[in-house]
Amino acid sequence: MNKEIMKDLPIKKIQDLSKEELIGLVRDAAKNWIAHDGLWFRAVEDEFGFEAAFKLDGDAWKKFTIIEAKRIMKRFRIEQGGGISALTQALKFKLYSHINEHEFVKLTDKQCIFRLKSCRVHAARRRAGLRDLPCKPIGIVEYGEFARAIDPRIKTICLVCPPDPHPPDVWCEWQFILEG
Question: In sequence order, which residues have a C-beta less than 8 Å from that of residue 44 and are 6 or more positions away?
């Protein structure tokens, strides 16, 4: 690039960004992360087959979701053992929450239902002409381990997740129950 052109470009630092720019940056990071995850999955699937890709993806999610939970807890000072309120707060900051539409239903201090109303992974697979990813086993690992990292007393139940049939406005639904 020409030096004359470069000196006229504003160079921003992250601390100079506006609230809207920071929110956009977080959304872009979440989109980039899920795009990389999908591209990695497809590369492994193309090279070694769907079963191998699915197994390795599950292995990675088991570790990643705990790391994500712990970083969210640290960043937002969420104490481990904080029950359903701590879990719902942490779920709002998962990378998925910035790119997938979700809602909490039946929220009490002893339980909640978390519903994913849109899913970028499935939208991308449909655009590519691929079948829905039967992600229920990975979701059980992802949401179960995430909830346990927040509070070991939380039990996670999958109410619906592909390959289960689901309504058009719900991709997956998870019930979290505080036991003990």
Answer: 52, 53, 56, 57
Tokens 């109410």, located at residue: 159
Alpha carbon distance 30, 97 (integer Å): 9
pLDDT tens digits, residue range 115-157? 999 998 888 888 888 888 899 999 999 999 999 999 999 999 9
Domain 17-178 has CATH 3.30.70: no
CA–CA–CA angle 74, 79, 81 (5° rounding): 135
Q: For residue 119, what are its two tokens?
A: 């899913």
Instruction: Classify residue 16 by its DSSP letter.
Output: G
Indicate the domain borders of the chain. Answer: 17-178
Alpha helix (H) residue ranges in the chain: 3-8, 19-48, 50-75, 83-91, 120-127, 136-150
Give this prediction's pTM. Answer: 0.88
| Tokens standing for residue 1 | 């690039």
Q: Which two tokens stand for residue 4?
A: 């004359």
For residue range 98-126, what is the model confidence (pLDDT) as tens digits?
899 999 998 899 999 999 999 988 888 88
Which among 171, 169, 37, 27 is positioned nearest to 99, based on CA atoms?
A: 27
